[in-house]
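Exercise: predict the fold of this chain.
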Amino acid sequence: MELSSPTFAPGAEIPMRHTCEGEDVAPALQWRGVPERAVSLVLIVDDPDAPDPAAPQRTWVHWVVYDIPPAASGLPESGRPLPAGTREGLNDWGRHGYGGPCPPIGRHRYFFKLYALDRLLPAMPRPTKAGVEQALSGHVLAQAELIGTYQKRRP
């Protein structure tokens, strides 16, 4: 399975438009090679370099999307509209949806992780990254990853 974006190359800088210094809209994503047995897809976007890449203390969650239909070949810019049946979990700002890169110091890495699962995830009252990861454990058929970077231009 492969995950890519028409907006930035693997390992390259995420354009400002997709960050807190810009319009804070999700970049368009594309994927291919989803296993035929897949029942759903999960996308998790996080930053393991928070708050400072020189001394990371936690992973900051930017977006949690699950129960994406396996026939979907990507998500449009802004993530809207989401494919029918798709659900969103909570990011670390405590809200549903995408929250773009907004690193307090230094250049951070942003991991876009896509999982193909052999089932839909169960209902969760407050779906977080931890809850979604726990629910997908043992059900991953394939996974793909895309990494982008960002460093604030304004202090």
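Check your answer against the key: The two ends are 38 Å apart (CA to CA).
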